[in-house]
Design brief:
The chain has helices at about 5, 25-35, 50-60, 75-80, 85-95, 110-120, 135-145, 180-185, 195-205, 210-225, 235-250, 255-260, 265-270, 270-280, and strands spanning about 40-45, 65-70, 80-85, 110, 125-130, 150, 155-160, 165-170, 185-190. By secondary structure, it is α/β, with parallel strands linked by helices. The chain has two domains: about 5-80 and about 110-190, P-loop containing nucleotide triphosphate hydrolases (Rossmann fold, 3-Layer(aba) Sandwich), CATH 3.40.50; about 195-280. A hairpin with a 4-residue loop joins strand 6 (about 150) and strand 7. Helix 9 packs across helix 10.
Amino acid sequence: MSEDMSQEGPNTKFAGASKYILDEELAKIVNITMALEMPLLLKGEPGTGKTMLAHAIADSLNMRLIVLNVKSSMKLVEALYQYDTLTRLNDSRFGDSTRDISNIEDYIKMGKIGQSFVSDERVVLLIDEIDKADTDFQDDMLDVLDQMEFDIIEIDKTISAKCRPVIVITSNAKKDLSDPFLGRCNFHHIAFPEPDMMREIIRVHFTDISKDLLDHTVNAFYRMREFRGIEKKPATRELINWLRALKADPDFKVKDLVKGDIPYLGVLFKKSPDYAVARNSVSRMRI
């Protein structure tokens, strides 16, 4: 490990961010992961704040955030670098570029992992939804992250990380990850917030919210999450947007929720079958 990679900056302890409610256990696992220089693997259902944690770490530690959104068809080399053969071909045909077509390195563009390696400052690297990728991608990626280097075969050059990034990997647990992959990460499962924590989250986003509105919307939200037959339960993002809709409606009254009149179900339920189930169930709700 190079001297630069082993040195910690002045702000290396994560204690949460202004818009991110953090429990003590999660704060500890983030900080020990950074100290051990290991990737942090986060699992949990959508809407539990996995992706936002990486944003919060970057914000709290004043680091740049680089996001790799994993796709099912993605090859590892795409995350490392791309050789822009099309631009080089056009330059050679039309001859109006300032680039030297004989210098292939001018046509190498760094992918998201490559960008985190060549950065002069330590960054947070978020690898989002790793469970979409196949096993070979996952294991080969961790080889690169272990070694903190990769080869660009077109120019016979090795790229070594200038600073080891803080690596956060998320999974929605739609597909099992390999044992070697799991063994090389620290792991934390982010459970969906309990109602009391959800109230804290809402207060962060709506500092002037009344207790009456807060209590009735949270109670209604958790009851709607338990509707039978719902495929995609509404998450924290949907609750926040629902509250925005309610607050923006001058005709809305909290007493409507008390009576079981739940407006703007389309903000909470985004799939047609779920919306139909919600509409059929909501008339029976009593807060």
